[in-house]
Amino acid sequence: MRTNLNIALPARRLLGILQGLLLLSMPAFAQGPPGMGPTTVESFVVEPAPLRSSINAVGTILADASAELRAELPGQVLQLHFEDGQRVSKGDPLFTIEATVLEAEVNEARANVEQSEAAFKRAQELIANSLVSATEFDTARADYNVGVARLLSSEARLSKAVIRSPFDGTVGLRRINIGDYATIGQIMVDVVRLDPLRVDFSAPETLLAQFKPGLLIDVSVGAYPNETFEGIITAIAPQIEVSGRSVTIRARLPNKELKLRPGLFAQVRVTLEVKPDALMVPEQAIWPIGQDKTVFVVEDGKAKQKTVTLGQRQDGMVEIVAGLSSGDEIVTAGQMKIFDGADVKTIADSGIRN
Fold first, then answer.
1. Are both 90 and 234 inside the same structural domain?
2. Together in a domain, 90 and 161
3. 297-310: pLDDT as tens digits
4. Looking at the 3D structure of the chain, how many domains does it have?
């Protein structure tokens, strides 16, 4: 019996020592080591910011206007009036094709018009004095009208010897040179309008109701990975593509700096709605407890844990629908070191820009 008592007494002392240490450690955990003061945490001040509700899609950049200029007359190329890649205006001459025969036809038609016009004027004077019959007068007038028509027709054919730009744009790479013989229908050069461009992209048919002309888009391309280009939706296809159950959407894309080119693969983000005063906080500020989402709000040097309701997420930020107000200071780093009611000292979050 004495032996058992001697063994039990040290065990009781050990248990008491452990309990004492535990009691001493709890205040230290709650308030920190004596003399250390409040716990330092990183914080972020909540301020209203625009929030875009968007949908991502892929598409292709296309020219708003493009044309393959072809020869309408056969003949040797006498002149080039442009350099490859040059910007041109509507009506600027690009090629001149030899047309000696057509020039002769125009001169002949012009001479015939002058002759028939003189005859018609004489017939007008004579008919006024009843010196010619009505039939002769009608013949003179008809000859004059036919001559004018033939002159206009020959001039129209001759004009095709000069190939002109059909609109303001940029000339591509010529496919024929001075001295070459052009045949009817042969492609001479491309002309493309680069500003503005358009972008066509597809979206699931289930999102059809959310699209309408006037919505803004942001376009990014692989050639300029750090830039975005803004456009606006102009039209929605009237039919659904049955094979892909999708709808085709077209947007206008300004290109004043002429960086973009038709044919580029485009990543498109469509802005469906803009909330001008959304409360956005860094995602790392959210502290989950069971099914609830909470944040620590700093008030008068103390951390107060509040339950919040989340909305949309965007670029590392999350919308707070309920639970916070503009101007609240929230903890973004150091939550594991604090608790509801803990004394804290805040420093600006080094990774966040207000």
1. no
2. yes
3. 999 889 999 999 99
4. 4
